[in-house]
Amino acid sequence: MKKQFAVIGLGRFGGNLVQELAHLNVEVLAIDIHHDVVQKFQDIATHAVQANAMDESVLKSLGLRNFDHVIVSFGENIEASILTTLQLKEIGVKEVWVKASNAYHQKVLDRIGADKVIHPERDMARRIAHHITSEKIIDYIEVSKEHSIVEVLATKKVSGKTLMDLDVRAKYGCNIIAIHRGEEVIVSPSADEVIQKEDLLIVIGHNRDINRFEKEGV
Ligand code: ADP
């Protein structure tokens, strides 16, 4: 059965999320308290509804308990975000993801059972910081506090070498899980794969190990 998504709060983040889900041909219910905002999503979302999500009876009447995944994005309206999250969990929504505005908000959301707390500005800032402080790091995704996936540019130093020559796992403790070469992506490359200049090596591991690999190994 197709997964059912709902996005509540159609501001900058929620609005973009609805657009992307619609591009992916995913069915999405879009909810906002403001009529004019809802209007803009009438032709984009599968359904766009004006409602105050803080009201439990509204959440019930919209049938949100049957949705697999609900994302709450209320910007600075922390009170609304907390109340809505609480109610969505109470009516039994399996996955409730919530955008947090600050660390305090995040703490409360974690306590009341949000399944994932999203920090788009902070996460994007981290990705960009990694990108601009290293000429080799092209992209960065945090997997946990200590682990990440990083896209590292292969320099002249390693081009022509095989993955076996690099021996990244033994020397640095991290793993090359894919190679991005032009339009092609080589997933789980074999040990005899020859690295070419300008390849993007997708590496997963502990931040400390990735750092060492990026500085000394590539
Ligand atoms: P963000 O910065 O998270 O992208 P914005 O502040 O740009 O968020 O937008 C938040 C949206 O959430 C606004 O469109 C606002 O109308 C909507 N909103 C705020 N409170 C409620 C509520 N109680 N129920 C439904 N929508 C709400």
From TrEMBL:
Residues 2-118 form the RCK N-terminal domain. It comes from Rossellomorea oryzaecorticis. Residues 135-218 form the RCK C-terminal domain. Pfam families: TrkA_C (PF02080), TrkA_N (PF02254). This is TrkA family potassium uptake protein.
